[in-house]
Amino acid sequence: MTYTLLNLAFLVPAAALALVATVRASDRRRFLRGLGLTLLVVLALTAVFDNVMIGIGLVAYEPEHLSGVFVGIAPIEDFSYAVFAAVVLPSLWSLLRPSRRRPRAHA
Prior knowledge:
By secondary structure, this protein is mostly helical. It has 3 helices and 2 strands. It has helices at residues 3-24, 28-55, 80-96; strands at residues 70-71, 74-75. Helix 1 (3-24) runs parallel beside helix 3 and helix 2 runs antiparallel to helix 3. Residues 2-86 form the Lycopene cyclase domain.
């Protein structure tokens, strides 16, 4: 099994959860901006730290399980956990927080 197939098992449900969170968001534009910013920051940090960890030999990958696409020396598949976290956590936060609706005034 390749890392790509394994990653899809997690990233497809993550995308579905993000879609539900986007549809249910009261301010979709704000939610998507936050999600995008989170993704950008997490991916940038992942690129730096994964390249360092691979460069000093802490982590190694079997080449036959990789797609051959790299960011520096980090295989693209190594970014899946960062994408998963950056998509799922804000989505869950959005879906699980209490509603901001105001209670009805009693007459």
